[in-house]
Amino acid sequence: MMQHIIVCPFNQGLIDRLHSRQLVIQDNNCDRIHDITRVGNRQNRIHSIFLNLREPFGAVPFHESWKGIPLNISCPEMGFFKDVAKKLPLIKQLKLRVFLSSDHKNTYTQLRILSSLGIPCGIMFGELPVHWEALNDLMVYSVYGKAKHASIEPFQYIISHYRSVGRTDFSSVYFDNPMQFLHCSAEGKIALSAKDLAAGNFISENIDDLDRIQELPAFAERKNEWQKFFLKNSICASCPGWRVCLGKYAVQAETDPGCKQFYADTMDAADFYRMKNEKEQEVWR
Amino acid sequence: MAVIIFKPTEKCNSNCIYCDVVARKDQHVVMSFDLLELVFKNIDEFLKSKPEEKLTLIWHGGEPLLLGLDYFKRALEIQDKFCLDTKQRIEHAIQSNLTLINQDFIDVFKQMGIHQIGTSYDPYPHMRGPGADRDTDTYNKKFFEGLNLLVKNNFGWGFIYVVTKRSLENPLDVFYLLTNFKMSGGFMMNPVLIYGEDKNDIAITPEEYSDFLGAIFPVWWRNQDRFPQVDPFKSLVTNIRDKQKSLGCADSGTCAYHYAYIGPQGEASHCGRAGDWQIISYGNIKERSLIDIYGDAQRDALAQRNDVLSKSDCKDCRLWYICHGGCPLDAFTKHQGFHHKSAWCEAKKGFIEKYLEPITGLKAEDHEG
Asked: Which of A127, B67, B144, B358 is 20 to 30 Å from A275 by CA-CA measure?
């Protein structure tokens, strides 16, 4: 049985109750990175530190000592280019991915800039409607672009995990796929997603249940949640892009079906990527 | 290979809009155990008379799971008792709507050597389900529970989607929905077959069926990795491009001596469709042996059909080798005789000539010579 990666806040008491786990530790303070690393690696192993910051990416006080620490940083925007450019040599030595919010009007352009600078990055979907056309352009740049550039999520995840005859859940990019990640509150209550955690919708209130979560009916229910689109006869069920979207924008799709074209194009991009890789393997065989 | 469409009951817990059994048959009869014994005794005798032959018993209905768990256990006991020397040549298969399946059934099916189940699926409301209104919500909820159990037990499954007038509104929506539902393929889109009055206004013409397929085919053709086992596309392309003969019972031209139907009271017919439509009677297993049923003279008319059609309705048809005039039962519904081609030939021909050949560049050519 697969062991879940645990997503939890930086809480020493909680982390000490866990043993031999892979952790994604969430925090909002760069100054605590070393403490998090020390505590997180004491009897567990840090999969990643996820920092949710309020400052622009360019204003983050990157430090030499962060080298080798797996970091995911979410920022509202890129900030000034000159700030990023100044820190670029150091940033490129870090094990880092930066996420920018889709709610910021310049995010799509800023992600392209970061990618072109060689900084792995991704879009963090916010509360405002997604600008599908801009997102599609960004996806095309990310997958088809011939100039050297760093990966952009969730496109990279989709194209590298896509199987032509299966479902691909890119929530893993955001550590939010219950088949891979479980969310733990500071009190040790367990939820299947960040949304469930925020809503207090726990699958168990006992941290000792971590290893038997997969046996619980609620887990099986979540595993088969995709079926609700068919049971409810949702328009998402008949969408050509459903296999990689899995209805994440079902509400928005009712009024703005822009997601349909985007995810259908993303599947084509995934096929392109797969075929390209197969061809490259043939050359080297 | 002999195939028996075996219907110990034609009871059903659903009222599917396109089902002939629901519309035509007495749904209260269940085959008695005495009769079940007689069926297996006959199978034993039949297989002993043909030492090279194998026999597939397809449990069909109605909904065969309404027979209950004990019925299947008893069938296994009866088979063990009366087919001692031949049971290795008996293969079981089952067609179920999955709404009643549970772990106990699955365990018995495994004992019967069944590891995959055929079913049907229709996403649209009021097409399938119990009651006059066809309660799709209840039906589909149970259906998905059954499906999850199959997956948990590593059972294979495939389904048939029946193309009705309702499907014609947006063929691609239907296609994407079905392929999202069953990503590894394994389904067949068949036209609704109405014998008699179209009470529910769901019938489609061969041309409509052809155009329905034609609207979907370019997407399938471009993305065969995504939609691998969708029929009739896959089988047609296999036959035309790969020159591998892979024809279903309706198109093979060889159904005359392979199939039989046995109903709940022992009534025998040619196949499921013949039994449902009550077109051919081979008598009753209580009075005739399975050997006699398979040797019934009426089958000769079906066997002669290839000769007759190749000189009449289908003379010079270049698609003969993948069609053979279609299902003789379909032909009978229109002409009251078997020696005519099926009206659905036009659907196949239309689809191949209007869509498949122009889109793929393939050319259907007889490689039988």
From this structure: B358
